Amino acid sequence: MTNKKRASSVTKTKQARPEVSARLVNIIIRRVAAGETLTAICREAGAPSYSRVMGVINRSSSLVSAYARARELRHERMADELLDIAEDGTNDFVEKQGRNGAFVALAEEHVRRSQLRIDTRKWLLSKLLPARFGDRVEHTGAGGGAIQVEHGMSAKMLESLTALRARLPASPGGALSDVPAPIDVTPSKR
After folding, report:
1. Largest Cα–Cα distance in the chain?
2. Which domains, ranges and CATH numbers included, belong to the chain?
3. Average pLDDT of the chain, as a whole number
4. pTM for this model (two decimals)
5. For residue range 64-75, what is the model confidence (pLDDT) as tens digits?
């Protein structure tokens, strides 16, 4: 292959990327808010690369805020789509031909794909916005009150502590004289 042919093939594969202006970034941010991903937008022919768009966004605090808000709106839209996908029964059943004629059957692949779309959105929302879409876990005690922590010491542990205390060196006026007296850990009888 000659250099001339090689150069022409390189120019065919390289497409001129547009200048990434604030106006273009604002259009991209509006598309993200409408539900598209930045990755998909940047894959389009003639679109700027993901890294160039993020570079422009990261240089301006107002664009950073606008992009963050657009992503929040996209996540809200994603949450709305959950119900739409779940309620859409289109193509869930197909007509098939059997030995005894035509019959209606469940389109299992379509149903599984819908379930995958729902599960993916649910998982993403729970990770991206856990306070709003994550599992709510509440830890409460009896009757919704505070958790009561009970602790105690087994007889064997009490014996071990007593044996350890007995092995401590006596310190009349020594280095350990400033140490407070040991705390009595004998379990109380209730």
Report:
1. 103
2. 15-92+104-133 (1.10.10.60)
3. 83
4. 0.56
5. 999 999 999 999
